[in-house]
């Protein structure tokens, strides 16, 4: 393999996943290698290609390779030297190096902090663009000049106002350039002009002289002076457009603008649209300029086939409304949009975009200005009829049209709407018919999406939704494979299930494809409003009249039991109590699989022995256990997916956006009998433990259900989940309700449970396989934030002590094993982080000095310090401690 | 007005997606970060992009009948922009990702949102969206070419050329131009040095040599014919004028004029190329979504422009013509194990009876393969496709003198092998599809007179004009079965 191939491979690997690539090598060494190879003086064609490839890494990922401004500056310097050593004829390489330098300088903030390198680079770029019409360097160097213009334009964008004192020079260059590059000069000048004027709008009482001096500026780069925020939004995003003072003399500016508009025709359409947007902003900001400047361009723009030019026209419409566009213009433009949204020669993506433009059409007199999808009043049913969805549309177009038409008919007056909705309904039925004829997976998904859109808009029209649901049920009876799709749909329209989709489906089940049906029935059993008689009769029929029990298939059995599991929870279970019990008993005797039999027997026992409240309690517990894992899983994925060089503190803090993250402490207890009790209580069943916190520092604790406690068996473990608002020590009152063997229910008070301070400690909640580097970084960042004293809640404390009989290392091991961030035995220093829900931290830095150990403590909640100190918890850890200093 | 990243992803059947090309624009990312503040979502690494994209586009796990993240009915893929869910449902999202799919290729880009991230701004309020869209569409033309399906090696070489192309058209994330369509790059023209007149950015140089102007007018006709009084037949026509102008000068002026015959219905929905310098307001007034009041402008349509070097679409239009060129009737009857077929095609008297080709395809879906075919045609020849699921009626260059041709007979489906299926065409829902081309004809009557093309240039150019009519989506549905409704217009 040649060196070039090797680089090729390495760079592909890097570009595919920088984080994985850098896990095997360090950023510094990779950057050094890249730069070394780039400095290689040998020139051949192969090397040129390789070098371009190497530059692309810096071009695309400057912040990964240059994590700090200083590395950025050094790298930019290196690249500058590479640039000057690259031969004239390696045009592509030179251009790429130029882009890389610009990217490095901007992204590592060298530009914003006004470093020498940034300044030199700007000067060099400006010098390059002086060579108008290639007089000096010749035609072959034109791409370099074009790139220089683009680099300057990007620097002006990222540091708005940088060119604001150079406008005259830029204007002259733009005027004199007559090759194709005049586009670049024109865009550069216009951007500079717009930013300069925007800066001026921040100033009160601008004089004619100041205004003039902008256009005539021919000085250096405007570092820092009066610059705009990088985050300045385009004017259509602002509540109020910034404006210059009235009454300024705009004659010069007006002629400049006219000329720019006149020449806009010479630009590429996409650049033309960018230019137009800048000019619109300028006119909007300068009261002395008339909107009618654009009049001469309007017809050309109205007729354009180019999507970016049409979009710029709509921007103009949005900005100037009736001061430039008459009512006829407005009607005309909207009709054009409708025409374009269905034009046979435009592409699907363009048409979808135009439909979005119709939905958000900037009317001269908008009724509401909210960003929601409320339809412009000009979009009438008549007009929209041209966008009626058809079965021949691709799925995106069809759904987009359907949504638009639904909105139109929601707004329309009654007679018209009924007719329109009728047509949409027919369309949905036509789609379902295709599904019924064995439509492909995509057809099924699209049709159900269409149905969902329809139901979301017209769920109030019961007659129609009933018909649709009838059709779905009918379809399901023929195509049981649709079960998951239908269940998904039912879940989504949960708020509008009238009449319930799933209930209707259940009525029509037959024995074929039992496993799908069981899935549907399981879902049906979750519907509180549906009586479950049909389900139970069907299952009874199936089990008694088929050979299902003899076949004893474990999976089928489980699916049947899953239905029961949901049925047991059902609020109207008493109506079918006997049938359900019969069924369970039948399975527990007849089903030819021991596991299924056992399960059925348990359900039977639960059903026949417990009240419904207790039953749901027992079942709810199991359900929670099943769901608890989800958030943990997703958060660890999120950490993995982000890649790049990360700010671990951000990652760590980001986790708290997941509701409930890190908010609980789980305490484990064993539930045992008191020493001496009546033998009646030797076996107690269905115990419900109730907890009552004694203070308001904790959230209400949910009841815990335990199936049984037998004196002669292992005592069951009980997990109490505490949710602190303030992580202070507390105690809980506990009471229990339970049943004895004779069927009587009892209530009893148990001893209070006290929760000590250390019991609330948790280790730093980071995903399980987080690196040590990550844990350390989070520790240090929290420490810095706490030590900076910015928050009035944070505190720092320090104490020293002499470890007596045990060594410090052992003490730490005993008390802080699970909370250690680092363990540098050799340096005799340890870092410990105690996390207390909901989001408090106690950080300890423990060092072994010559004759004493020193513990620095930082916490972001100073209220916690007393518990550390006055409760003598730390003292107890490090027996015989003397508090040295605290502030 | 910038894009943060650009991807070309391929997904071959049975394989997971693969990033074939990607490009990030860090300075735009720098701006995105500062605009979005705490709500900033970084662009994920390339290795996770294909899966995220394919999930949103419904292309993952093709073998599984239902996957919730893919098939959720509440996730509506009905906008040109999708959102990528980086951490699964409920997690961080990357929006708006514009996508264009062609064959196995997915082109995607992420425009910069120059707006507060919450609440999510409407797509049309973002300048970067149409720019990203234009870039993607240009990229599609560049990679796929006019045929739409490049050979793997051709595609590979075009992908390899992408970095150089982007260096010109989008060096720092801000689109300056669209990539040149594949195959349309004009013969090497030396970049012209600066002269007295400014060179248009869309014209790399000037033409030298013989002056030729060719103007080709193509009209396409679509139709849905049902043969029922309850369902009205529909048809429409759309046309486009393609130009190639080899004329000297930096900004030569050319005027092409389209004319309609007396009483011709006006050209509607006219869209013009950006090189058209000015337009008369009356040209644009006719619109297909408007009622025609008969008083509308009906030409002549003048298009003054300064041509680029390459072939380009000067303008396009739609038109409503009073009759379809071929009126058809299709009757299908099911009898025991065979179908009785009857097709009648009538050529309208106003249409020139001189085709380059005219074929009627009669496919049979959801049936076993054809066995015995006893069908007679009054004109032309009948062929049975070798797949045994399609009858091809080759009508040739001319209809008979009566301008009417019939096909009649029975088709047996004796085989045991099942033919192709189509969910639309079940039972007696079936169609005949026509394919034809008539040179030197337009249905709207629109034409470009050779003498009306004006070129203001030193040398007198040779002027070539052509016109043709081509069928597109021309269906005749079986009148004895249910035909799918194709347009809302019809029902109004």
Automatic annotation (TrEMBL), chain A:
Residue span, AP-5 complex subunit beta-1 beta-barrel domain: 683-753
Q: Which domain of life is it from?
A: Eukaryota
- AP5B1 C-terminal domain mapped to chain residues: 777-870
Gene Ontology CC, one term: AP-type membrane coat adaptor complex
Q: Which UniProt keywords apply?
A: Protein transport, Transport
A biological process from GO: endosomal transport
The record's section on InterPro entries has: AP5B1, AP5B1_barrel, AP5B1_C, AP5B1_middle, AP5B1_N, ARM-type_fold
Which residue intervals define the domain AP-5 complex subunit beta-1 N-terminal in the entry?
32-105
Where's the AP5B1 middle domain? 249-615
Its name, as the record gives it, is AP-5 complex subunit beta-1
Species of provenance: Cyprinus carpio (Common carp)
Automatic annotation (TrEMBL), chain B:
Q: Any keyword Lipid metabolism?
A: no
The highest taxon in the source lineage is Eukaryota
Predominant subcellular localization, coarse grouping: cytoplasm
An example GO CC term for this entry is:
cytosol
Alphabetical list of Pfam families matching this protein: Adap_comp_sub
Which SUPFAM superfamilies has this protein been placed in?
Second domain of Mu2 adaptin subunit (ap50) of ap2 adaptor
- Entry's InterPro entries? AP2_Mu_C_sf, AP5M1, MHD
Q: Entry's Gene3D superfamilies?
A: Mu homology domain, subdomain B
Q: Give membrane topology per the record.
A: Peripheral membrane protein
Q: Which residues form the MHD domain?
A: 210-478
Arranged from A to Z, the UniProt key words for this protein are:
Cytoplasm, Endosome, Lysosome, Membrane, Protein transport, Transport
**Known partners and oligomeric status:** Probably part of the adaptor protein complex 5 (AP-5) a tetramer composed of AP5B1, AP5M1, AP5S1 and AP5Z1.
Q: What is this protein called?
A: AP-5 complex subunit mu-1
List the gene name: LOC109107656
